[in-house]
Design a protein that fits this description.
By secondary structure, the chain is mainly α. 44% of the residues lie in helices and 0% in strands. Bound molecules: iron/sulfur cluster (SF4).
Amino acid sequence: MLYINPDTCIDCDACVSACPVEAIYRDQNLPENLSKFLRINAQGAKEYSKNIIVEQKAPLPTVRARLLEIEATQGPMPEARKILDSLLM
Ligand code: SF4
């Protein structure tokens, strides 16, 4: 889980639209059923304050690139390709 330090966040909302699973909300827009995460986030940010991301890392490989990597070491995986093709159509 990623924790956002509520003391240093400037509410620019850049992370809100960048999150691929729409898991980040501005405090004021947090749905009521998720309100407990305000406290969980604040506690996590404090607890893990030494594990701060300070540099951008390379993006994770796409699922297709990862399949090619796996096939390079383990051989062809036609069933995985079939499933992947059906999901990405
Ligand atoms: S990107 Fe997200 S966490 Fe960072 S300052 Fe903006 S709103 Fe806060």
